[in-house]
Write a structure and sequence with these properties.
284 residues; alpha+beta; 5-stranded antiparallel sheet; 8 helices
């Protein structure tokens, strides 16, 4: 099931058979992310097929060689030590991958492209533009597709953002402060980040970096999800974990003393008539 993938960098500004490590990292990361996300997208489509894990094995890339000509990066793709079978989902994932590569060449984003796939395609475009003026991508089943840096644009793959006039809020830890661009960022405890653009009170707010804040501004949405706020004001918030970190730990005696019900060290408080009835019931 292993396949070959060849990326040829043409007229790149480095010696034949070499590649800048920074460019190599960006190219390999973008290619791997793109193939993985396409595989996940195919698995999530209706119909029978393999599991997500198997599809990610199918999408796995391994750099096998760097060769002259100008510079050729040779990859192996797919799981090793598996039966050489092409299942329907694998074929669809492979088809989608080459549709994206052809779309990059044409500088046109296909309608079926998800935001995550578009994001990965944009990273690949950016990496290709940095690596050199031209490149080709091919495998044993597909002839080389030539990609010209001047004809491809990251903006084609940029997420479609919707700037609203609705005032929204975001809570989180202030983790980025840029006084020059007036752009900050907050991130909540589950890892969701919201960019803050045109922060109005940027100087006093900058002192809150690393602390919990409440950001208020006009919402910017991608696929209905809040990703940024514009014309932002920032206010300090109490750390929601502070009470847990500084709280008093109750010992067993305090817990029992505050618990409802009878005194655990006491007995039944009965009058004579109640005690007589209790003993009569106990004797049967």
């Amino acid at each position: 099931m292993t396949k070959d993938l060849e990326l040829r960098l043409i007229d790149a500004p480095f010696p034949d058979g070499e590649v800048v490590v920074r460019d190599l990292a960006a190219l390999t990361t973008a290619l791997q992310e793109l193939t993985t996300r396409i595989g996940r997208h195919v698995v999530n489509t209706p119909g029978p097929g393999r599991t997500m894990r198997f599809m990610e094995e199918f999408a796995e890339l391994r750099l096998r060689a760097v060769e002259p000509g100008s510079t050729i990066l040779r990859f192996s793709k797919g799981p090793i030590d598996k039966l050489d079978l092409d299942l329907e989902q694998h074929e669809l994932a492979d088809l989608r991958f080459w549709e994206i590569i052809e779309a990059i060449r044409a500088d046109e984003r296909p309608e079926w492209t998800t935001e995550l796939i578009a994001e990965s395609a944009g990273k690949l475009v950016a990496a290709l533009r940095e690596a050199g003026p031209r490149a080709t991508l091919s495998d044993s089943a597909h002839p080389p597709i030539e990609l010209e840096s001047s004809a491809i644009n990251v903006e084609t793959w940029t997420s479609r953002r919707e700037l609203t006039d609705v005032v929204m809020t975001a809570k989180g830890r202030l983790e980025k402060v840029d006084l020059r661009s007036h752009e900050f960022r907050v991130r909540d405890d589950v890892g969701h980040a919201v960019d803050l653009k045109h922060v109005e009170n940027d100087l006093p707010a900058a002192h809150l970096v690393g602390q919990w804040v409440l950001a208020t501004g006009k919402g910017i949405l991608v696929s209905g999800q809040l990703v940024a706020l514009d014309d932002v004001s920032i206010a300090a918030l109490d750390d929601p974990a502070a009470d847990l970190e500084d709280g008093h730990i109750l010992d067993l005696d305090e817990i029992l003393a505050s618990a409802p019900g009878p005194d655990p060290r006491g007995g039944l408080d009965l009058n004579e008539e109640e005690f007589s009835s209790f003993m009569k019931a106990a004797r049967g």
